[in-house]
Amino acid sequence: MRAFFYGNWAYGFFAVALCVEAALQQRTALNGPLYHLITFLAVVVFYNHAYRTHTTTGGADDRARWYVRNGKVMRRVQFALVALLVGALALAGAACGQRLLAMDGTQLFLFAVFPAVGLAYYGVGQRGLRRVGWLKPFVLGFVWAGVVTVYPALVRAVLDGGSIPDPGASVRLFFKNMMFVAMLGVLFDIKDHAGDHRNDLRTFVVRRGLRTTLFRIVLPLTVLGLLTFLGYGAFNGFSIPKLLLNTVPFAALVAVIYALRKRRSMAYYLVVVDGLLLVKAVCGSVAMVWF
Predict the structure, then answer these.
(1) ∠ CA 16-19-22 to the nearest 5 degrees?
(2) Is the whole model's pTM more than 0.90, yes or no?
(3) Are 170 and 26 in contact (CB under 8 A)?
(4) What gap in Å lies between CA 82 and CA 156, rounded to an integer?
(5) What is the per-residue pLDDT across 6-59, written as a single tens digit (0 to 9) for each?
């Protein structure tokens, strides 16, 4: 279980689940096993990259120490994952080459912008968007929302030679997912508060303190997101069960906000905080399929 979460495999599964949810919500067909395999591999590689130095130099928390103990294995795993990702991308490119060449400028931009921002997140050396503490969670939210919201509809549109069915709904869903992931990112920074303070990384919790971050930043934005969704759902005639199911992740996020008033273990952040991504994906998918 520790290897599943510490090795970032969970993020890959969460991303695939959110892709399925977004495709259902945008009323587009699923893109098939190869697409979801590429998504899974890309997300795991992205998160493993953050711990590449910990395989030799160590770190302050239990996950970083786990990477030190398993450094050789993780370097081999990362190499294998990158090789599989390159192979899967090549296979997809060979199968869809003509459709890819027919993409217009907007589609090309949308395909390129999220990997570019992801690369800028890590940057080079000490220069990267992740070093801008207050911006870091929103950059992650932007990349996640692009991968799990824009790409499912965009890839299907390219494959079918059409366009995204409802661009307006897709934009609203993009910002909803971006803010949800960003709020989880702000909460996740709480566990790194001491180290970020020493390294002068000005995250929200370093700048404003724990209670202000929880109750004056994350909680109001979460409630605003919930109210915005409820208004949108009511305006578009969502059934009561669909509305209730989609409020579950917001309610769970509020519960986590209150729980983080106390010190929590690394396992809590990885299983409970990040696990809200899976809760959101499952609730959203069930609401679309059955209600």
Answers:
(1) 155
(2) yes
(3) yes
(4) 24
(5) 999 999 999 999 999 999 999 999 998 999 999 999 999 999 988 776 555 555
* Residue pair 36/88 in contact by the 8 Å Cβ criterion: no
Distance CA 33, CA 285 (A): 18
Cα distance between the two ends of the chain: 34
Please list, in sequence order, all residues whose beta carbon lies within 8 angstroms of the beta carbon of residue 9, skipping any fewer than 6 positions away. Answer: 3, 44
**Residues 104-116 as b or e (16 or more Cβ within 10 Å = b):** eeebeebbeebee
Bridge partners of residue 127, in order along the sequence:
124
User: Which of 220, 209, 210, 143 minimizes the C-alpha distance to 177?
Assistant: 143
CA distance 68 to 55: 4
Unique residue bearing structure tokens 């996640």: 144
Q: Encode pLDDT of 143-162 as tens digits.
A: 999 999 999 999 998 888 77
CB-CB neighbours of 92 under 10 Å: 18
- For residue 96, what are its two tokens? 């869809």
Tell me the H-state helices in the chain: 2-6, 9-25, 33-49, 54-57, 62-69, 71-95, 97-101, 105-122, 136-145, 151-160, 167-188, 193-198, 204-208, 210-212, 219-235, 240-259, 266-268, 276-290
Confidence band for 130, pLDDT divided at 50, 70 and 90: confident
Average pLDDT, the chain: 88
Name the domain count of the chain.
1
Q: Which amino acid is at 41?
A: L
Count CA atoms within 13 Å of residue 32 on its CB side.
Answer: 7
Q: Quote the domain boundaries for residue 281.
A: 2-290
